[in-house]
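Researcher: Let's run the pair from yesterday's discussion. Sequence first, then tokens, for each.
Model: Starting with the first of the pair.
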Amino acid sequence: MLEITVRLIHGPVYLSGETVECTISVTHPLSPSHKVSQSHNDIFESLAWASAQIQCICTTDARVNKKEDNLNYEFALNSTALSTSSEGGQIVVSTKPRILFCDLQLSPGQAKTYVFREKIPSDSPPSYRGQLVKYSYKILIGTQRVNCPVKLLKVPIRVLPVSTSALNELGGFCNDTTEDLAPANPFLEVRQKETPFDITLQTLQNITARRNPNFYMISNTRGKVTRFCLFKPTYKLGEDIIGAFDFTVATVPCVQVSVSLQCEEETNVEQRNIGKLKRSRIITFSKHHEVCLGFKYTQLILPIPLHVTPAFATPLVSLKWRLHFEFVTTMSKTLEGPDLNQAGWQAPTELPIETMVWSLPINLFSTTPAQVAQGLQTNNIQRLIIR
């Protein structure tokens, strides 16, 4: 019996373009003391070979035409790739298999450890579990005994998107060369240059930390309903969306307000015998609800979950985020809210109302992989027993 243990060194969450690193240990556990080998060869366990690679499986209920969609992903169509046909779906990203070892023999109690490093392609889609399309990433470790079927160990990982074009549009990368032009000081420690991964994280932090309040006057056909302030339009995973409502400018009484964090999933796939078909789904996550009759001011606090996927776009699907507002206003002109000087206030039994909806787009970006990993209940160690 052999045991293969895979340990993710930096956790199960990565940004696109980041390098995945894991250790793969092959162990031959000690046999029971009462077991006696019949020959010298019986005490050894052997494996013919083992390889590792990263794959992304796309699952959808429609057929993807690779030629017409012009997907810029590397498809694993060669015979050296590990087969995952039993899962269904289609391989849209597949790195080249890396051979870990050949003809490995281990005596009882002996173990061998190998390190697997592979870079996730920068143009690969992120991990996403939508209603119409799903992208799932796995590290596939395949091994085989002589004249035995191939054994697969699938280690799931999560990939977060990094939209370079969106970063450049909102803030861009800072090319500060002041330090390079300064005179060199031989007594100061030479600081290592920042890697592209560090620059990306710093840019995400700078863009999402900017305060840029935007004010919106919300009204209907009968007048002003409220004045809404959103303190910033750009957020990252795990943050709270904070806003404020000002009802002092309202000419139409607002009874209650609901705000939902929603994502809009839009696909452009090719159906059999139909051609290209566009479909969209709206998915609601966190929601803020408040009865605001008689209020002058109130606030909005809406958390962004860590398990959701930031905005991204591929030739197959695009994902956008928005705040969806629902205002319930009353058409009664004689309705008055509670007064501070009153000992009690009785609400009317019947109230003529009408509902108004409004959607506000927001920008949602990734955060540090370590922060996302803390909110996920995943195991960094996976095992496979070969008998």
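Model: Moving on to the second of the pair.
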Amino acid sequence: MIDETDRRILRAIQGEGRITNQELAARCGLSASACFDRLRKLREQGYITGFAALLDPVKLDRALLMFIEVLLDRTTGDVFQDFAAAVSNLPEILECHMVAGGFDYLIKVRVRDMAAYRAFLADTLVQMPGVRETRTYAVLDEVKNVTALPI
């Protein structure tokens, strides 16, 4: 279980992952060694799973964001496994979630433009194991896009 001091540490590093231990300690009201120990324990206990740089998709030629509902032809263990394995090898797919409801998976895709999306859809997505039907939703405006968890 974590306490409020741990939560302060987690909030701080979510906002600024490259913060120095000295600055983190000062913001959280800890000594540098106590902060370092707490951070190490949070990593060891799995509260912190990694650190990453957030990149600008427009500058990296991945401006078009799409969400796609995927309905499989069968909902059996082997079809789920085959689909999940295929998804894991596709860099265009940023997220893939198995969901309950009227379809089986919701995936988040970033590509260069609509032509690249059409090619991805025709050459890759509909060819994946078990895919029966897809529905695509193009994002017109990213109203909110955060990576920080509310803690």
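Researcher: Give me one sentence on the second I can quote.
Model: The chain has a mean pLDDT of 96.
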